[in-house]
Amino acid sequence: MSAFRLLGSFEVRAPDGSRIAVGRRKQRALLALLLLRGSSLVRSDEIVDALWGADPPSSARANLHSYVFGLRQVLDQVAPGGAARLVTSAAGYRLDVAAGDCDAAVFERLAAEGRRALEQERSADALDVLTRALELWRGPVVPDLADAPWMAPHVTRLTETRLAAIEDRVEARLALGDHAGLVGELAAATAEHPLRERLWGQYLRVLRVTGARARALAAYETLRAVLRDELGVEPSPELQELYRAIRDDDGATAAPRHPALLPPAVPDFTGRVSEVRRLLKVLTPHTPPAGLSVLGITGMAGVGKTTLAVHVAHAAAPAYPDGQLYVNLAGAGPDPVAPADVLGRFLRALGVPSPAVPTDADERAELYRTLLTGRRVLVVLDNAATEAQVRPLLPGAAGCTVLVTSRVRLSGLEGARWTELEVLDADDGVRLLSRIVDDARVDDHDADAAAVVGLCGGLPLAVRIAGARLTARPGWTVSHLVALLRDENRRLDRLDAGDLRVRASLALSDDGLRPSARALFRRLSVLDVPDFAGWLATVLSDEKPERAARDLDDLVDAHVLSAVGTDPAGQTRYRFHDLVRLYARDRAAAEGDDEEALRRGLGAWLAVASALEPGIPGPTWAQIESRAFRPDVHEVRCELSGVSAVDWFDAEQVALRALVRQACAAGRTDVAFDLAQRCEKYFDLRGMYAEWATTNRLVVGACRAAGDRRGEAVARRGLADLTTWITDDQSTEAMTRQHAEAIRVQELFREVGEHGGMADAGVMRSWALTATGRHAEAMSAARESLEWASAAAHVGGESRAHLALAVAAGESGDLGQALEHLNLALERARVLGNPRGEATVLQFFGIGFGRAGLLDEAEGYLAESLAISRRHRDLYTETLTLICLARVRLQRGDEDASLAAEEALATAREYNMPHHVADALGILGEIALGAGRPVEAVGYLRESVALWRTRGWLRFLAGALVALGRALTAVDRVESAAALREGAALFAQAGDDAGADEARRLLAEL
User: Fold this and answer.
1) What is the 8-class DSSP label of residue 48?
2) What is the pLDDT of residues 460-484, one digit of tens each?
3) φ, ψ of residue 895 in degrees (nearest 5)
4) DSSP string of 239-263?
5) How far, in Å, CA of 976 to CA of 980, rounded?
6) Residue 1004 CB neighbour total at 10 angstroms
7) By CB count within 10 A, which of 355, 559, 870, 920 is most buried?
8) CA 325-330-333 angle, 5° bins
9) What is the Cα 388 distance to its own chain's centre?
10) Measured between alpha carbons, how far is 279 from 282 in angstroms, rounded to an integer?
11) Which residues contact 1001 (CB under 8 A, 6 or more apart)?
């Protein structure tokens, strides 16, 4: 296995095969760029253009250094011995990797080797090498970077090489005489790549050799039409000559093959490229199989199982010269066809006169197996219900192949290989709609067409019905159909055309469920979550847990529910198709079971989240418990006993956000605010600030509308803290805004008698007052918060209040009092057991000792804080700690100061932490100034000053202005004087006499 894998999703593997995380998108892009350029030097300006485009930020070079630093760590894991090496020069970077370590390079080498073997007429060698080359492809080239302009030529080169390798491999198989095995494969390949004339030539040759003259002539006409329509040209002279040779053949076509019971192929068949390729590979093997082959296609109602089966059966038909049998077993309906009746039909199709067909079912099966012995027949058993219905219809000898379709995976069919059919992706769905409607309405309105496909959930049956409705109504626009389908209450009614009905198709699956599974099916649909873990079934079911689990399995087997993999908590997750959910929800509402299901489901998620949330490091706010219903989740807790809280929230965060939206829409604000509150520490830890803000704003609006003051207070508390530290709102100074909002939150908590919440709001007030230089008021607010926290037994609030007191004391110059309160804050944080609280207090110890010039002590505290935040992947805390470390190292004169500052800046920019961005820029400016680069320093410091103006923290703005004034002395003395004067005034306003005196001294020396 290659260490670097580009031919599909981007992966980097360690020597033991485990995956290595590469980091953020731009770091992955940098690695991909260096790999795709081989061992060539890539200039720094090329990299900047590739990563940031024509207008890179001023920090691009600094960020690039940070990404390079991160890549070196990745390379150390890939090749500890140094086999993968990133070489830096003045001009740029070059990545040297060992031969075989990059799958793209291995593929190109093997493709060239295969081409040489083919040219030397070593067909067997060519086939082996080219097969190995093509097996390296797992999907499109690095799809998550495909939209980057610099990727286009690399994708084009590799894709073209892959197509050429496919054609070379076909040529090798032709040279080895494998004509019959290529018929279906080339039919699919020419459909996927209609402009590849070499593929068409190979297809025509195969059809000619296998005696399919009529199909070869029809295929040529198809090619000719495509080339004329797309390119305005005729086929190449070589293809024209081949066409004339086929046309003039006097051997006619092969003798008719009977029976030929396949229904007509669907003319507008679309997509399913990988499924077609996989099925045809088995249906048309290189050599006849040693035993009976059984293939199965399974999937939900309307997903296109029959259409796919008939399509591949027609494509594979030439490989079965003794005929094709087909039957619709009607397994999804109330009256499945009996195997004995099917055997009678098959025997007559095989030439047995009606009077000679045995009446006994077993004798029919014996005669059927006898007649198929030694023959190559394809048997298509469509819409099967059970294994018992299928088994009597299986041939008994090698040479035949059976293709089964069923809504239920028939696991009891020994040796069957199953294809799980999913819905169409957006592009294939739009192509299908376009082929059905066949006029400009779809082609000219791609966005509306995509919306129709999305509202149909990519279900082929639904897309066909939508297309049929448009075709029957030439006056409708696609946007009109979109508007009709957007109404969830009537969507299923509108997906009804002729004998095509989505609701009726789904009802057949529903009717086949046993009563307890049917009830669970309806209740699960009520929750507006994209997917869910299996424990939800035990909460919503009236049955015992083991029976509920069995019912859940039955829903998956019936394809009304899909198992979609394992989540970070190790739970299997399940998902509804949108139309299936609408159907089940309609039934739940009609039967009056929807409100209770919603109450139980919301309460269950709240109960589990409340139990696990204390295990997440994050803001140590008081938890204000709602009066919302919580069911007994003891069984669920036992099931999750070995799961970490963070892993569970990783798994459930999307569902939790969806449930908050649903609770708000349903007016259940008690659940909404409590669920949102349980997510806040997780959002903070993972840097999901946009999601946090959106969730809390939604809850604030719902609570205000409902008059829920407790819920509004809780949601506003988190929002106030978030929009202070993580925001791009520059309409008012952040700390001024925090003070006003903290007062509002404190009053709301006072109204509902929540002392813990009052303490949290009071700490926010204290920080804001400290920032504006009102230190005595800040101390008073923090002491008041400490009293409220103690009254509420709110240990986290006590720790935060002591920290606020320490900051206020430190800003006013009383380091001794600051350290005293920090010790008390640390003690309370450790009692609470919250890593965020502990890491934050340790940061401020580092800041305090750094200001006192005790650099060894400062660095020790900061290193301890950094270890905690990195252990818990706490980005916000880590970023501030890196900034503090950079400042301490700057005081020492260490070269590592810039690395820490650049890393902090990159993270702060990515996660929109303006306070930290301003701080990191200030340090980089001071580093540049100390290194004798005043122009570079001015660039950093001007941006830092601009950001500090939006923050409203006087002392930090004053420090940035003084640093800018120092940098400007060699650039613009007038501007330097203005910056120093403003800095001195602000230091004085903040009560920092030493800072003001230093600024005045520098001003006097100008």
Assistant:
1) H
2) 888 888 887 888 788 788 888 888 8
3) -70, -25
4) HHHHHHHHHH-SS-PPPP-S-B-PP
5) 6
6) 8
7) 920
8) 175
9) 41
10) 5
11) none
DSSP state of 181: G
Interhelix angle for 775-791 vs 755-771, to 10°? 170
For the residues of 773-793, what is the DSSP string, one character each? Answer: T-HHHHHHHHHHHHHHHHHTT
Token digits of residue 762? 């009071």
Closest CA to 362 of 345, 339, 385: 339
User: What mean pLDDT is predicted for residues 169-181?
Assistant: 81
- The 3-state DSSP class for residue 571 equals coil
| Strands 293-298 and 401-406, sheet pairing | parallel
- Are 342 and 348 a contacting pair, CB within 8 Å? no
**Distance separating alpha carbons of residues 385 and 394, to the nearest angstrom:** 15
3-class secondary-structure state, position 532:
strand
Mean predicted confidence (pLDDT) in 675-680? 96
Kindly provide the b/e burial profile for residues 159-176, where b requires at least 16 CB atoms within 10 angstroms of the residue's own CB.
eebbbbbbbbbbbbbbee
* Strand duo 293-298 + 417-420: pairing: parallel
Residue 487 phi, psi (nearest 5): -75, 100
In angstroms, the CA 962 to CA 939 distance is 14
SS3 318: helix
Q: Chain centroid to CA 505: how far?
A: 31
User: What is the identity of the amino acid at 91?
Assistant: A
**Tokens coding 667:** 């007016």
pTM greater than 0.90 (yes/no): no
Cα separation, 615 vs 612, whole angstroms: 6
Q: How many CB atoms lie within 10 A of CB 95?
A: 24
Burial of 572 (0-12, 13-18, 19+ CB in 10 A): middle
What span, in angstroms and rounded, lies between the C-alpha atoms of 121 and 919? 68
Contacts of 892-899 spanning 24+ positions with Cβ under 8 A: 892/855, 897/923, 897/927, 898/924, 898/927, 899/65, 899/66, 899/69
pLDDT of the residue at 256: 34
Q: Are 510 and 560 in contact (CB under 8 A)?
A: yes
User: What is the secondary structure of 355-408 as a DSSP string?
Assistant: GGS-SSHHHHHHHHHHHHTT---EEEEES---HHHHGGGS-SSTT-EEEEEESS
Question: Which residue matches tokens 């399974």?
Answer: 298
H/E element, 504: helix 502-511
CB 972 within 8 A of CB 935: no
Q: In a 10 Å sphere around its CB, with 0-12 CB exposed, 13-18 middle and 19+ buried, how is residue 284 labelled?
A: buried
Given a contact cutoff of 8 angstroms between Cβ atoms, the answer to whether 605 and 673 are in contact is: no
Taking the CB of residue 833, how many other CB atoms lie within 10 A of it?
Answer: 12
Q: How far is the CA of 849 from the CAs of 551, 806, 816, 862, in angstroms?
A: 62, 13, 11, 10
Backbone φ, ψ for residue 544 (5° rounding): -70, 155
Among the listed residues 762, 754, 807, the one whose alpha carbon sits nearest the alpha carbon of residue 622: 754
Residue 142 DSSP SS3: coil
Q: Using one digit for the tens of pLDDT, what is the confidence trace for 544-593?
A: 988 999 999 989 888 888 888 888 888 999 988 888 888 888 888 888 88
The three-state secondary structure class of 681 is: helix
DSSP string, 858-909: HHHHHHHHHHHHHHTT-HHHHHHHHHHHHHHHHHHT-THHHHHHHHHHHHHH
User: Which residue, 342, 453, 462, is CA-closest to 391?
Assistant: 342
CA-CA distance, 762 to 771, in Å (whole number)?
14
